[in-house]
Structure formats: C-alpha cells, structure tokens
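Model it.
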Amino acid sequence: MSDHMKRLAAPRTWPLKRKVAVWATKQSPGAHSVESSMPAAMVLRDLMNLCDTAKEAKRIIGNRELKVDGKAVKNPKAPIGMMDSVSVPAMGLNYRMLLTDKGKLTLVPITEEEAKWKLCRIEGKTKVAGGKIQLNLSGGRNVILDENKYKSGDTLKIDVLEQNVLDSYTLSDGASAMIINGSLAGKVETIADYVVVRGPTENIVRFKSGTETVKKNVFIIGSSKPEIKLPEASE
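Modeled.
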C-alpha cells in the first residue's frame, strides 16, 4: 500500500483545493476510515489554519500542542475523524469534527466543557468473561458494562478520558440523526420509522422528510434534538 496520495485522488469528504499542489498527506491506519477522517497535520494546516506548511504542523504536533479527545497527538499522520474533539489548549481552541450538509469534513467550534465528551455509535456487542458485555464503539473505543441494556445502532455520550457513559440515545422514532454516508451524507434528519428487514439485506431507516437510507449510514445525535453543535448550513 502506498504511503502517498495525490490531491486529485483524495476522498470527496476532504475540503481541499485539488489543484494548488500535487500531493496530500495520507493518514496512518487507525480508528477511522480514510473517507471519514483527515491526518492531524492537514487538520492543523487546512482546517484550523494555524500554520502554512506541513513542516510547521509537524513542529506543533511534536511539541504536543494538539490534543484529540483529551490526549496529545504524537503522529502527524494520525487520523482525526467524525465526532472527535480537537483542542489546542495553549490557544484556548476547541472543535468537534463533523460533516457539513454537503458531506465535507469540517471543524465546529465548541466549549472546553463540550470537548470533554463525544458521541460514539454502538457498532456491535461481545460477551466477555464474568458475563459482562463489551460494547464496540465507533472511533475504536470499547466499553465494558455489567448490563446488556443498549442495542447496536444506539449512540452513547462518552467521557473521553474516564470512558464513563454519560447518556444514551436510541435508534427509534423521533430521534435526531446525522447521515454519515451516501448521497445524503451530512444531512440531519428526524427518524419517522425504523424498519427491520427479514433476510440478508440491511434494516431501513425512514425520515420525516420522506427520504430513507440503510441503518449503517445513520448516526443518532440526540433523542429529539441534536445534542451537539452542528455546522452552519452551506450556501
């Protein structure tokens, strides 16, 4: 696998000018897919505009000034993806990585308190020793609980440092959801119906706007309204 990426071949979710340069930084393997994340050095330079070159971005990261989910980033190619909180404490800057309504990755300014938690979707569950349940979450996190009270597709509000569950939001009628894949990526909708399909095909989520998509494309962001600050609507 190549360690290089041309800008013209970069994912469409990356808000980059394609023809100002030939090459783009390619992120290291991590908890996020290439389409749903950007490398740390590029986030500093192209999204936060805190430096002009990749060399300067590497120096900032080398000084441990960039934090993701409360922890200092050490690798300039580390992927920063959906729902991650991004902070530069020395400058008092805090952001959350989200999608615009055009399906582009963007940083939304948040408070220092909001940067202490994030939303994680339950991707699957595993029974572990002692009869406990391990929840496999988006963003590469795992949480072990005594009770099996959450379902795949639900979203948990997680303390990024202590890993405690602060709240939960179920995939159900009336819930607020962000579409994270497909032609509607970035749109925020209200769920009208969740249809369980019998067979090998995926379950369907229908929205009050009249649109629908498969379950894997839906990320619950609140019970009746969004619990996170959303990007401003694009013109």
